[in-house]
Amino acid sequence: MAFNLSAVGQTFGPKTLRYDWQRTVLYALGCGAGASELDVLHEKRGPKVLPTFSVVAAHEPLLESLVAVGGNLLTLVHGAQKCIAHKPIPAEGTLETTAKLSGLYDKGKGALGIIETRTLDSKGELVAETEWQIFFRGEGGFGGERGPEAPSFLPPEGKAADHDLEMPTRDTQALLYRIPSGDLNPIHADPALAAKVGFPKPILHGLCTFGHAARAAINSLCGGDPDRLRSIEGRFSKPVFPGDTIATSLWRIREGEAYFTTRVKERDEPVITLGRVTYAV
Which of 200, 204, 196, 190 is nearest to 241 (CA)? Predict the structure, then answer.
């Protein structure tokens, strides 16, 4: 299916997300938060909001940009994700998000779309930015620029991780995450559809795994305070299945910066690579 190259550079939205504290708590539960993380789960403590909740606010304008650029949506793979937190997300209220299709690149075997979003609070102040790298499998060869290469956020060779955190998931993890995230793609819920595309069972949302990695960084580097996480990014490499144990290893690179890798413990497979976080010290 041909791409609509005129969509590159266009903005989409703004789209408004109205939410209450119950939704932010459900999102934290969907990302695996447990009883020791009451700051993000109990209304009497705010609740504080995981900074990766910015992907929920970005969901609608992101979809609008993907529809506008065309291509075969059935070939989509989430390649990489970045979230930047400019200020804490309110526990409830209104967020307004605009998306921009900043690039569409020809990678030969596929095409890479990059979508950037900006989210404002009810005062018009910038709360968060995100960057999505979406890969269209088999849709390359249209003659565009090759575009950016992967960043070199590799853990220091031969150095043991400064932090290792294991987070078990439940067999209902994807069924829970889909409610607050708004991502109702049946590949995460319907066994028959998952089998049709080659998976033995429904897979966990990549952004759910990303939320687990963010919690690992918050709990190990930020003293459990989500307001101290400034940014998180990484590349998705393999799927996670509900019930897997998500293990994240973090290496402190310098003050306020760390690299990380996330893997499935049971199969020792990396599922997020080239991970990087920045945080307030």
Answer: 204
The set of residues, in sequence order, having a beta carbon less than 8 Å from that of 262 and lying 6+ positions away, is 209, 212, 213, 216, 234, 246, 247, 248, 249, 270, 271, 272, 275
Angle subtended at Cα 275 by Cα 15 and Cα 171, rounded to the nearest 5 degrees: 75
Query: Could you tell me which CATH class the domain 5-137 is placed in?
Result: alpha beta
Q: Model-level pTM?
A: 0.95
What is the DSSP secondary structure assignment for residue 37, as one 8-state letter?
Answer: -
pLDDT digits (tens, 9 = 90+) for 122-135: 999 999 999 999 99
What are the boundaries of each domain within the chain? 5-137, 163-279
Summarize pLDDT for 63-91 with one digit per residue, the tens.
999 999 987 777 788 999 999 999 999 99
Phi-psi region of 221 (alpha: psi -120 to 50; beta: other; left: phi over 0): alpha
Beta strands in the chain (DSSP E): 11-19, 76-85, 93-106, 110-120, 126-137, 163-168, 229-236, 245-254, 257-264, 269-279
Q: Alpha-carbon distance 169 to 245, whole Å?
A: 6
On whether the 163-279 domain is CATH 3.10.129.10, my answer is yes
